[in-house]
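Worked problem 6 (solution included).
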Amino acid sequence: MAEAKSAENTVFIGVKPVMNYVLAVITQFNEGAGNVTLKARGKAISRAVDVAEIVRNRFLQGLAVQNISIGTEEVQGEGGAINVSTIEIVLGKGK
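Solution. The predicted structure is:
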């Protein structure tokens, strides 16, 4: 059950404007989430970092970065398998 709850508190970062994701994170916390995970890969990694910093510094000052995980996924492309970098940032209430 805890795993399903954490899946609900995940924001997948893509190509939308940064403020859309900031609003999604703030909404999760306002609905009572203890922590929210931002997941991104490839070129969206910098957008995920921007989202985390904007939420922490401008909107919810009591938040802290609980964990940052980086990795690589193998994705099948037109020319075969390629490696894509991934990041997972967990934001939570202050320590």
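Discussion: The helical segments are 2-8, 18-30, 45-59.
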